[in-house]
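User: Sequence in, structure out. Go.
Assistant: Echoing your sequence, followed by the structure tokens.
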Amino acid sequence: MNAQPARPRFDILAVIMLGGFLNFLTIIQVSPLVPGIAREFGVSTALAGQLATLTAVISFLGSILATPLMDRFSRRGWLRVEAGLLGIGLLVSVLAPGFGWLMLGRAISGLGLAVLTANGYAVAREVFDEPWRTRSVGLFVSASILAFIVGLPIITSVNAHAASGWRAALAVTAVPLVIFLLGTGRIPAVRPPAVPGGVFGAFRVVGGHPEVMWLYGALAAVIGCYGGWLAYFGAWLDDDFAIPAATLSLLFLVSGSVELAGNNVVPPLIRRIGPIPVVVGGALCCAVPLLLAGTVFASIPAAFLMAAMMNVGSAAVIIGVNARLLGVPTSAPGAVMSLGAAANGLGGWSGPLVAGWLLAASGRYPSSYRALGMLALAGGACVLFAGRARSRAAAAHGD
């Protein structure tokens, strides 16, 4: 089912954007709630903080396990299953009588996130023609940033003022979740053609596209360096520069607003010069401030620039890679996007892990950031290899 570019389905676009909002909000919602959770269950703050890591790891594993089934059911059906799992995970978390139950709830929520983005992007592939197909990716990422700018402050405020604290703050997420579940009725219930080859057929189809595999590498590398940077950015500014809390909040607000603006520039730029140059530029935009951390980027004003470059660069990579993945000719489009979500998840949990290990080993934030900068450069190299693989494939088919 294809809509004409002049008359996009804004109802479907709204559902896709709400999915992006829910996806990121579910990942980050625990961050301001960690102290309260730790106090109530008598666990360390470090252990409570691992709830976010648990959600990310389960989401990563779930996206891989779901890959063989992605093109066997309709996108509407998949989105409803994901929304249902998010609802169950939220209910278990809110009512958790102990920390183990809370871990179970967050694990179920991780399953609900596993292929939420993948199916959102797949809907864009099936419903929209260009330019709205690429625009929808940019709007999906913008909705994710709104979760940071709008959703997280609401959760923080509820946590501070509600009698039940973190439980009420988590329960707030039910509002956009119910709206999203109702909105899935606007998604066409079209079942894509099944991929032949049994359980491993989808993996073989995706593995037969070298360009796709290189794009996965680029996505995992850049998301990894971004996640590792973000996990310790506030601590770096506090320990090395004694940044006031109000200034740090302003920094995130400004950098998030810059990214929102950038998200509206990236899609037309992709249409003009192609996704490969845009993604390479995004990777370099992330690499430069990380490689120069502690030298050029060694002050609070420079931190504002660093945050803006990291946000804009990572968004360019996410939008560019997914826009290209949506355009790959394949018999398993859902599987392509599912493994793309796995690559995103791999970077999301491994980046902070690597950054933490490097910080422990060196004792200096800039040293770990420079290593992450090299990872961003590796992501840019993966994109160049993807472009070469695409050219070879086109030459082989006489295009």
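User: And one key feature?
Assistant: The radius of gyration is 20 Å.
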